[in-house]
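Shipment paperwork, digital attachment
Item: protein structure file
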Amino acid sequence: MDDNNIMPVSMDDTFKFSCSKNVACFNECCKDVNQFLTPYDILRIKNRLGISSGLFLERYATQHTGPESGLPVITLKTDHAAELKCPFVTPSGCSVYEDRPSSCRTYPLVRVASRSRKTGKIAEQYMLLKEPHCLGLNQGQIWTVKEWIENQGIAIYNEMNDMLMEIISLKNRLIPGPLDIKSRHIFHMACYDLDTFKSHIFEKGILDSLNPGSDTLNIVKNDDVALLKLGLKWVKETLNRI
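Attachment content:
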């Protein structure tokens, strides 16, 4: 990424942007994709498609181990025969637009977050990405960064992604390097394969040591966000016990 194309912005800074079929570069940003997926991204898209997390991961995702974190990393499968296109792009646009991943949702902004080891607080910085191919930056209404975050529903994505970042930070502090197979499986299931995680809660009692309580269990039966939060909590507790 060219440093000349990215500019730090504050919450009150403004930018012009619009994306629609009327923009000549429409759908160009959905080609040559290297799209990382967060646990919350997968939750939203698999529910949008009406399929299980396991089927989503099999059909639409690939997994590798992060070289720095040693943790499972999920990326979106692209169409190698069609310019590495996103599998959800259509001639009329994104077929999962209302539940698109956080990085797509935030564009043309980029959020950079870091967690203080001393205080545990998350610090964030937004950048405006001015890619030469994007003509949307030359038209449309003027937004402040704060207005864009609110309009695009980004806050819940940030909240969930920051919970994951806290776990990654904890893991790197306690267990440098790759996890063992069992711990890697726990992380993958609780973060990414939520439907399998749910079945293990109710059929195998894997959270009995956490003692989540009947009220919590009743909630997570029908609330995937609560389920993901519980999964992240379980991963955190597991890391602390290793």
